[in-house]
Amino acid sequence: MKKKLHLPGELAGQAIRNVFAKPATIDYPHGDPSIPANYRGRLVYDAPRCINCLMCMRDCPSKAIRIENRGTKENPDMHAYLNVARCIFCCQCVDSCPKKCLSASNDILLARLSRDELSVEL
Ligand code: SF4
Ligand code: SF4
After folding, report:
1. Taking the model in full, what pTM does it have?
2. CA of 18 to the centre of ligand 1 (A)
3. Does 67 contact ligand 1 (Cβ within 6 A)?
4. What is the pLDDT along the chain (122 residues), one digit of tens a residue?
5. Of the CATH numbers 3.30.70.3270, 3.40.50.720, 3.40.630.10, 3.90.550.10, which one belongs to the domain with range 34-121?
6. Of 60, 90, 104, 117, which one has the greatest count of Cβ atoms within 10 A?
7. Angstrom distance (rounded) from CA 58 to CA 106
8. How far away, in angstroms, is 26 Cα from ligand 1 center?
9. Running DSSP on this structure, what letter comes out for residue 72?
10. Which amino acids bring their CB within 6 angstroms of ligand 2?
């Protein structure tokens, strides 16, 4: 294929158009990120539905999710913890859960100042 030549005038015109074009980025965190509804952000956990089957933990490829029953078998007190640093947001845990108690939200504000803060309770 013949390579297209870019004349200096063409480049200057493109540069001027870019200066006045709408930016492709936003002024984070002040701009509207307009996250799509089906975005895979922070997971959400519906504890009362959880049956402690641990399928989500078993199928997670990066061992990022942990389910814990702090109660008893008769009176469960279910908690879910996510290591945001490990999670790759594949949503395999969501697909594996037989009770549909895990779902992905469009929360993208997951940055923290220290590694320890990246382990969060869902
Ligand atoms: S989204 Fe993927 S990586 Fe994250 S906890 Fe679920 S299965 Fe694991
Ligand atoms: S797969 Fe669903 S029901 Fe089973 S432990 Fe995980 S969250 Fe609970």
Report:
1. 0.77
2. 39
3. no
4. 555 666 777 888 888 998 999 888 888 777 777 888 889 999 999 999 999 999 999 999 999 999 999 999 999 999 999 999 999 999 999 999 999 999 999 888 888 899 889 999 99
5. 3.30.70.3270
6. 60
7. 24
8. 28
9. -
10. 50-56, 67, 96-97, 99, 101-102
Name the residue with the closest Cα to ligand 1, atom 4.
87
Mutation test residue for ligand 1: of 38, 66, 67, 91, the one with most atoms within 8 Å of CB:
91
Q: Domain ranges in the chain? A: 34-121
SS3 category, 41: coil
> In this structure, which ligand is nearest to the CA of 92?
1
